[in-house]
Structure formats: structure tokens, C-alpha cells
Amino acid sequence: MKKVLVMASGFGSNFEAIVEYFKNKDVCIELLSDKNNAYVLKRAKRLGIKSYIIPFNETSNFFLKHKFNLVVLAGYMRILPKEVLNLAEFINIHPSLLPKYKGLNAIKRAFMSGEKVSGITIHYVNEEVDCGEIIFQAECKIEPDMTLEEFEEQIHFLEHMHLPRVIEELIK
Ligand code: GAR
Fold this sequence. Notes:
There is one protein chain. By secondary structure, the chain is an alpha/beta fold. The chain has six helices and seven strands; from the N terminus they run βαβαβαβαβαββα. It has one domain (2-171): Formyl transferase, N-terminal domain (Rossmann fold, 3-Layer(aba) Sandwich). The chain has helices at residues 13-21, 39-47, 59-65, 82-85, 106-112, 148-171; strands at 2-7, 27-33, 51-53, 70-73, 90-94, 117-124, 134-141. Strand 2 (27-33), helix 2 (39-47) and strand 3 form a beta-alpha-beta unit. It is globular. The N and C termini lie close together (11 Å). The protein binds glycinamide ribonucleotide.
């Protein structure tokens, strides 16, 4: 059975979308959070998914002991060093059309900058923030009468729709 680890530090809506997508498929999903009070851990408990709470400085040890076919950063808000990246294949989801709006608060920054189009990017992870080779992008329009909340909803809709499908392709 293929094993996928999702790494998340916060809310975990992408984690839940991934778990739902693979529910009746032959793929094992597990969760790693660096924060012991992250809401995503509650989701994992409710969904019956095994979770690990691993402080950032113990990440490398964790990957020496546990092996996965793919590791998915979905709202994991830390930069992984090369010694960790060498231990598995890592992808990341980011809520902008990279290379635009790397880093924090990308949705809000794209919106406030008056962009007419933004979107999401799924990419391989390297040591630079939001920088590795792009695997997939999807666009959405920012209509003139759209609120930030409506735009955020669109972005998350795209993330939840595409990320599980891309994971499935990559582990085939
Ligand atoms: C997602 O929008 C993801 O693209 C973003 O964090 C959010 C996590 O949401 N990641 C980054 O900004 C990485 N630079 P979630 O916890 O509800 O899945």
C-alpha cells in the first residue's frame, strides 16, 4: 500500500480534502504537525487518521525512522533544511500563481495588489521558500466586485479539488 504523509501546522482543510478523496482507495494517509495545539490534529482524530506531533528540530530523525512514498506540505509553515528534504519526496501547495506572491499571506497580497487573476501552485520543495519545480497550477479570476472572503473561498475550492488528484498522479 502506498503511504502519503501530510504535514500541516494549522487549520487543515487541505488535509481533510485529501483524507476524503482517498477514503475508499488503497492509500494510507498519515499526518505530521509541528504544533501540538493545531486544529488539524482534531480533524485527524475525528477522521481516524494516525497523527504525529513532531517539533521542527526533530523532523530529520522522524524521516530516518518513517518512510513514505510522498510527503505533502499543506499549510506546514516552516522551511525544511536539505538534510530533511533528502530523506523523502516533498511537494507543497501554495495559494498563488508562483513565482508571484511567495511566502506568507499570499491570498491577501494578490487581492490587495489589484490582480485580475490569481490561483494555486503545487510544486516540488527545495530549500528556498515556495520555489521548487512547478507540477501544477490552476487559475481563478478576481472579479471587480469580489470580496477578499469570496476570493479566499475560490482559492481553497481550487486547492481541495486539485491537490488530492495531483497526489494520486504522483504516487501511481
Ligand atoms: C493553504 O491555502 C496553503 O496553500 C497555504 O496554507 C493554507 C493552509 O490551509 N500554504 C502556504 O501559504 C505555504 N506557503 P489549510 O490548513 O486549511 O489546508
